[in-house]
Design goal:
The structure holds 2 protein chains of 2 kinds.
Chain A (H helix, E strand, L loop, with lengths): L1 E8 L8 E8 L4 E5 L6 H8 L7 E6 L2 E2 L9 H5 L1 E4 L13 H11 L6 H12 L3 H4 L8 H13 L5 E5 L7 H18 L2 E6 L2 H7 L2 E4 H5 L5 H13 L1
Helix pairs in contact in A: 3-4, 3-6, 4-6, 6-7
Chain B lengths: L8 H33 L31 H37 L1 H16 L2 H10 L5 H12 L1 H15 L2 H8 L4 H37 L11 H13 L4 H28 L10
Helix pairs in contact in B: 1-2, 1-10, 2-3, 2-5, 2-6, 2-8, 2-9, 2-10, 4-5, 5-8, 6-8, 7-8, 8-9, 8-10, 9-10
The chains are: A alpha/beta, B mainly alpha.
């Protein structure tokens, strides 16, 4: 279980981005989280991946309550959750070749020996050729870079995957390829998924259930605006 | 008319910059060749005293003239530049290593470690650094190493500040988040992702510091606190020339002075061009 219980988080204690948000994901379950931009979805994703300390509330990963965040979280908990961000340009170290980008978590956790094999396997899975693997981020397209970022998220075989607007900047065929790669991984490893986005059609097709941000907070939903945003996203 | 009659200010700026860069590059190359090749190739003794030839003005035999004990000034200047350049390079390198380490550590660890290290930087900065440098050289016997230590220990502060602010802004990048989620330790993130990103800035700071360090060496030697008097350094040469200047002998002051000013300006010019490439928004200024 990935349990997010009555979380309050933000970047200013006096004015949090959201208050009292709860969401529970069962093992192997895929949950889509819909919401208008600026509502705090990404902040919630950062809390769920132990990258941002909430002001209040509890996060429990497979029964282990989380007590530290970022580097203070135990490595086993951090690596149990894979994360893919919205902007591949910003989430890839510009100095690393894609091959090293994907292998970096293995090296960081002392499993250097597996790197070559895992990189080849994952590159095939996300659709990256050998030529692309030896390029640096500025030499590939956003879609290719996002494929590498997904491979990096999967390389440690996480039990949970958090995709924060993973496909928001990508074209339809890359979106389909990435979603297919995530689903293939989840079938094999039974991993749970939190997919954050604003594209209702995509999330409805991808996930077991789709929740709207407004239903998590208990606050009255700004329904018409949120609905318009969601349909606008779906129409593209 | 084939050529447009006007040139934009940008064109003019770019072409003067190109001239400045090539002139600087030629000077720096000449200086490096001179200090590396002259001592082994020209087997003349820079310490050779010939009192019969003391204080001769420039002549074909001694293009820069001779000093107050008849030593050839051109040779003394080259040897002096060699020592000053060595002191400047080593001191700038050591200062950059210290500054980068302190700045990166402060930013990477944050919290009380950051506050402690930055208060240390503030404390050092609050003392004029020539005074601090004098204090350090005064603790040792005169020589090259005390001067290097003194200049290095007083010049890492700005690098520490630059590196710290750079690392702080990098630390919040999503790729650092991704590394943390991938199980990277604090050390791993710093060494693998943060330090390589600040190295160009630190390298630039090091080059910009070379002229500054050379000036400091000269200042210490001029005050009689740096290198021992017999060892040619640009500061020593200017210092010993002081007396003869009043007697109207201009060459023992002019040539070492030029040897100090021209190469340091050339190094600063090259570093300025490098900085414009790294950070094109900022106009170059000489940081001496």
């Amino acid at each position: 279980m990935l349990e997010l219980a009555s979380l309050t988080a933000g970047y200013d204690r006096r004015d949090p981005v959201f208050r009292d948000v709860s969401l529970t994901i069962a093992p192997g379950e895929a949950v889509g989280l819909l919401g208008p931009s600026g509502c705090g979805k990404s902040t919630l994703a950062r809390v769920a991946t132990l990258l941002h300390r909430p002001d209040a509330g509890r996060v429990t990963v497979d029964g282990h309550p989380v007590r530290g965040w970022r580097h203070r979280a135990p490595r086993e908990l951090r690596t149990a959750i894979g994360v893919v961000f919205q902007q591949p340009r910003l989430s890839a170290d510009p100095r690393l070749r894609l091959r090293d980008l994907i292998a970096e978590p293995l090296r960081a956790t002392g499993r250097r020996a597996e790197a070559a094999g895992r990189v080849a396997e994952l590159a095939h899975r996300v659709g990256l050729t050998d030529d692309l693997l030896s390029r640096r981020p500025h030499e590939v397209s956003d879609g290719q870079l996002q494929r590498a970022c997904l491979a990096r998220a999967l390389v440690l075989r996480p039990r949970w995957l958090v995709c924060d607007e993973m496909t928001a900047m990508l074209d339809a065929s890359t979106t389909a390829a990435l979603v297919a790669a995530v689903e293939e991984y989840r079938r094999e490893h039974g991993a749970g998924l939190l997919a954050v986005g604003h594209d209702r059609v995509l999330l409805d097709r991808w996930c077991d259930r789709t929740v709207h941000w407004a239903s998590l907070t208990g606050a009255p939903a700004p329904a018409p605006a949120a609905e318009a945003d969601a349909t606008a996203g779906a129409g593209v | 008319m084939a050529e447009p009659a006007w040139r934009s200010p940008g064109d003019t700026r770019r072409s003067t910059r190109a001239v400045r860069v090539s002139v600087s590059a030629v000077i720096v190359a000449a200086v490096v060749l001179a200090v590396l090749l002259v001592p082994p190739l020209v087997r003349l003794d820079q310490q050779a005293v010939d009192l019969a030839l003391k204080l001769r003005p420039p002549s074909p035999a001694h293009p820069f003239g001779t000093d107050d004990v008849g030593r050839d000034l051109l040779l003394r200047c080259v040897y002096g530049l060699r020592v000053s350049l060595l002191v400047g390079l080593v001191a700038a390198l050591v200062a950059t290593v210290i500054g980068t380490a302190v700045g990166a550590a402060a930013a990477a660890f944050g919290g009380w470690a950051d506050r402690l290290l930055m208060r240390l930087v503030d404390t050092f900065s609050s003392v004029p650094h020539l005074l601090l440098g004098i204090f350090v050289v005064a603790m040792f016997r005169p020589g090259v190493w005390p001067v290097i230590v003194s200049v290095a220990l007083t010049h890492w502060l700005s690098t520490a500040r630059i590196v710290r602010s750079e690392v702080l802004s990098l630390r919040s990048r999503p790729y650092v988040d991704a590394a943390i989620a991938g199980g990277a330790s604090r050390w791993r993130v710093t060494v693998r992702h943060l330090l390589p990103a600040v190295l160009p800035q630190a390298g630039l700071a090091a080059v910009l510091m070379v002229p500054h360090a050379m000036w400091h060496e000269s200042a210490l030697s001029f005050l009689g606190l740096g290198l021992p008097a017999h060892q040619a350094s640009l500061g020593n040469l200017v210092q010993t020339a002081r007396g003869s200047l009043l007697a109207g002998d201009w060459w023992p002051t002019l040539f070492p002075g030029l040897f100090l000013i021209v190469p340091t300006l050339a190094i600063a010019g090259l570093a300025g061009a490098w900085r414009e490439r790294l950070n094109p928004r900022r106009r170059s200024e000489l940081m001496l």
